[in-house]
Amino acid sequence: MSLRRTPRRRLPLRRLTLVAVLVGVAGATFAVSTDAFGAGHLFERALDRIDRFIAGPVPDRPTQGTVLVTSPPVTPAPTATPTPTLRPSGAPPSATPIATPTPSPTPARVPVDVDIVDDHDAVFAHELKDTWCAPAGVQMTLAVLGLADTSDAFQSELQGRVREWESYSDSHNGKWGPSAMVLALEAYGATGYEVRGYETRQDALRDAAVAIDTTGSPVILLAWRGAHTWVMTGYRADADPRFFPDATVEGAHVLDPWYPWVSSIWGPSDPPGTFQDAAEMERNYLRWKRPEGLYPDRDGLFISVVPTVAVSPPG
Description:
With 315 residues, the protein is an alpha+beta fold. The protein contains 7 helices and 10 strands. Strands 1, 2, 3, 4, 5, 6, 9 and 10 form an 8-stranded mixed β-sheet that branches. A two-stranded antiparallel sheet has the order 7-8. α1 (13-34) crosses α2 and α3 packs parallel to α5. The chain is globular and about 95 Å long.
């Protein structure tokens, strides 16, 4: 007795192709959702490129340039030089003077530790994507000034408006550059910020310290050669830089939107308000140098976004 075998039915080629596509899509979706092998990161970058392509070329429109600061604009320490004696109006030179003003005493040269933020966690915002340090930095600056919250929704709102402020001269890649940050701050009530460039790191930190003291507002530092954003809320120095132009700023209190992530290049980030000493500033706050092209008014300089006027919170 012989057994009759029933031949196996073969799936049509189109059905096999469909199954393969579905399996591939499912696998890709899983990889993206779990960021397996960095797939999520690559997928977001691909979406950014598509978004940039749809938006068209970066507009080459005028924007705020970089102000070169060759020396820190600080007020020298008062001296005890006698002030001219005052005489009554219209009195002859021989008349008895009415007063001899007492010269202001020279401030003591003592170390200072300044921070305009009491609760750093309350004004901290983590960047929602690894390319969103600029809107996160703007968001934290506004939060310190009482002009914004630290919600994910507000950071997304800032990111969504960047094309109102972008310019090719500010960022050849499009979207955020320091001038766009100035325009974003202004749009939400933080007027008077400007992009500044310095020939030395110490000049940049000293000027930032003076700006924080005189305006009560934070400074944005362009760290990692211009690739990252730090918000400086205070500093330590061996003397008050408002009165001593040669004061040495030893480091800064910083809000780093990268926290709590770890960078493969720059290492682990620090919690909100961490004091970054001179060694950390030398490692992270470096001269502007971007791979996408030349920036004649920034290349080789230390760049920051500095307040020039005090900002009053609403109400």
